Amino acid sequence: MPEEIPGTWVFTEHTKEFFSEQKILGEPPEKLYLRMQKDGSFIARIPEEENHSHWVYRTLAGTWELEYKKDGFLKKNTLNLEIGFPKGTWFFNFSEEKGQLVLWQYIGDPDSMDFMEFIKED
Fold it and tell me: Does domain 2-120 fall into CATH 3.40.50?
């Protein structure tokens, strides 16, 4: 699994549709992506929710690591992204759809069933 993480990840069609319906502040970049490096660093150019009120295009950088176990208990594979600025941690989960690995996390309230999903770019 770790060898499958490095590379450029892009939004799924579902996520593109979600964000096309949102008002996002700032100049839209040519491409939205999450780029994972083999050395455990990442850079992302994606919308980020600010103050739970609006979305802003951001360039974020930090480190990533896979989390296999927590406190001695087996845990579903989770990807932790530690962001340098603004400080924080994102947690992405893995799933597989049609033989393709998908990184995903909830957007806002998990009960809304809105997801930010990424697939690896070919």
Answer: no
